[in-house]
Amino acid sequence: MIKFENVSKKYPNGFLGLKNVNLSIEQGEFVAIIGLSGAGKSTLIRTINRMHDITDGKLTVDDTDVMSLSGKDLRKFRRKIGMIFQSFNLITRTTVIKNVMTAFVPELPWFRATFGIFTKDEKIKAMECLDKVGILDKAFVRADQLSGGQQQRVALARTLAQNPQIILADEPVAALDPVTARQVMDDFQRINKDMNISILINIHHVDLALKYATRVIGIRAGEIVYDGLASEVTQEVLNDIYQGKLEEE
To answer: Up-side HSE of residue 173: CA atoms within 13 Å toward CB?
Structure first.
């Protein structure tokens, strides 16, 4: 479980990214976070793995106080939380399978990590992860030869290689065309259902949020203004979240 208790995040310039957030997310949920640009969507998900530190309140993941972690304990904690970005963060001049196997590097002995030496089992694991997102046939293709959607799937396969309990996705389909975006969202949905991995996705495509997520959290100016079933989101709710300025799809 992810639990926010009166959580606030104040940036050094004084801007309040989150204001007194109270929120609980159970294991296996598929949650879409929506709101205007700058509303606090990215801040919310990035506090979960300590990319951003909270300034007030308490944030726990599986009863672990996130702000109490440091050093080796923080690195171990982050291993169970995958992160997907809008930019795919791949090593574009190497193969797809090598990109996926970078997920193993933090746990390798320094010699193997330095020279990129992987075991047969690690290679098999990487291939299995590529198969789960439907691009096993691209394993030995250079990453820069793939389409944007295929590159995002490589990023997702790399995250799966961590054996995460949670996947945080920060605008993962924003750079993709509508057809490809739906294909990638299909992957997220399947992984959520088949592997019971919690998915928290920050997304500006409201139609995709309502189609794929089971739960929607609406943020406005750092505050949670809606938290409920995707099927129950009405136009009135959207007007409240977006203050009548719904972003372009």
So the answer is: 24
The dihedral sign for the CA sequence 67, 72, 75, 80? negative
Domain shared by 64 and 178, yes or no = yes
Distance CA 45, CA 38 (A): 13
| Cα–Cα distance, 16 to 121 (Å, whole number) | 46
Q: Which tokens belong to 46?
A: 């990035």
Say which residues have a Cβ less than 8 Å from residue 18's Cβ, sequence separation at least 6.
Answer: 7, 8, 9, 40, 43, 44, 47, 54, 222, 223
Nearest of 7, 32, 73 to residue 211 by alpha carbon: 32
What's the CA gap between 152 and 165, in Å, rounded?
Answer: 19
- The pTM (predicted TM-score) of the whole model is 0.91
Domain that holds residue 20: 1-80+167-249
Last residue of one domain, picked from the residues 163, 179, 199: 163
Q: pLDDT digits over 142-193, tens only?
A: 999 999 999 999 999 999 999 999 999 999 998 889 999 999 999 999 999 9
Specify whether the backbone of 50 is left (phi greater than 0), alpha (psi in -120 to 50) or beta: left
The total number of structural domains in the chain stands at 2
| Sheet (strand 64-65) strand order | 16-25, 2-10, 56-61, 64-65
How far is the C-alpha of 186 from the C-alpha of 5, rounded, in Å? 32
Q: What is the CATH number of the domain that holds 189?
A: 3.40.50.300
| Burial degree of 245 (CB within 10 A; 0-12, 13-18, 19+) | exposed
